[in-house]
Automatic annotation (TrEMBL):
The keyword Cell wall biogenesis/degradation appears for this protein: no
A Pfam family annotated for this UniProt entry: CarboxypepD_reg
Native source organism of the sequence: marine sediment metagenome
Keyword Membrane: yes
Record protein name field: OmpA-like domain-containing protein
Length: 298
């Protein structure tokens, strides 16, 4: 190795002077990138990898022009050319950009919660302000979406506005199913049993109430009126108090067991004032002893 003017040095390979290329590889915030591959190609090919400080060096290069290719998983490959000399500083620092992830899509369907019929609705991705309309079969799609979680708002006339989210993965399609509920929809809970003349729910009824809880959990936008109804046996006053107590018992179950927000549940007892069958028969009285859920509009 011989000293050159300016404090630089060059090595002799045979009778030919050789030089070096060195530098730092960083991201756009100038953080060092380790384990990046640096390929220098000319008449021959040389490979090096950056250390934890993002530094690389390749020695024994014959003076001349080389192509440099820097690669690292998750980053865009960088290509440049460099001229190697023995009497100049051959330093090449490279800033790498993160590679854009492959885009994905979202495909969905919107149906009526009760009838399961498809709905034509407005579907908006609220965080990017992108809106589409579902077709006559209830289907909609958003294409070329960057991978991330998106928030959706689904709106249709006479239906409670629904909000949901979906996560897009690179080069994949996220499938979502949306059930919209009409304001004023009546959901009758058949099979809920109370102890005779009391408001205590029998254990066998919990599975039915759990289904209602699932609706409320999946539709946080929905508030309900819990209606308690009785047959015409006993006095009007007794039946009114009993129906109110039973509606409140259902409300308490949903709050205590399923953590439904109390403000979403309005218990009202109607006693025997809203029969749906003839109280003159046992079958009719059985139908009249019921709990209804009324979906409240926005």
């Amino acid at each position: 190795e011989f000293a050159l003017c300016g404090g630089r040095s060059a090595r002799i390979k045979g009778l030919i002077e050789v030089g070096s290329i060195y530098g730092f590889i960083t991201d756009e915030k100038y953080n060092p990138i380790s384990s990046a591959q640096v390929i220098i190609a000319g008449d021959s090919e040389f490979i090096s990898y950056t250390n934890e400080a993002g530094y690389f060096i390749i020695d024994n290069l014959i003076p001349g022009t080389y192509n440099i290719i820097v690669t690292k998983s998750g980053y865009e490959a960088q290509k440049l050319s460099a001229k190697v000399t023995v009497d100049e500083i051959n330093e090449f620092n490279v800033v790498m950009k993160q590679a854009e992830k492959e885009k994905g899509r979202i495909s969905g369907m919107v149906v009526d919660y009760i009838s399961k019929e498809p709905l034509v609705v407005d579907v908006t991705i609220t965080d990017i302000g992108l809106t589409t309309v579902s077709d006559l079969s209830g289907h909609f799609a958003f294409n070329n979406l960057k991978p991330k979680t998106y928030l959706f708002k689904i709106q249709a006339l006479d239906y409670i506005t629904s909000h949901t989210d979906a996560t897009v993965l690179p080069d994949e399609t996220a499938e979502i199913m949306i059930h919209l509920i009409k304001g004023g929809t009546v959901i009758t809970l058949e099979g809920i049993e109370f102890e005779l003349g009391k408001a205590k729910i029998k254990p066998g009824s919990s599975s039915i109430l759990d289904k209602v809880a699932a609706i409320l959990t999946n539709h946080p936008e929905v508030d309900v009126e819990i209606q308690g109804h009785t047959d015409s046996i006993a006095t009007d006053e007794f039946n009114l108090k009993l129906s109110q107590a039973r509606a409140e018992a259902v409300r308490d179950y949903l709050i205590d067991i399923h953590m439904i927000e109390p403000v979403r549940l309005i218990p009202i007892g109607y006693g025997e004032t809203k029969p749906i069958a003839d109280n003159a028969t046992e079958a009719g009285r059985t139908k009249n002893r019921r709990v209804d859920f009324i979906i409240l509009g926005e």
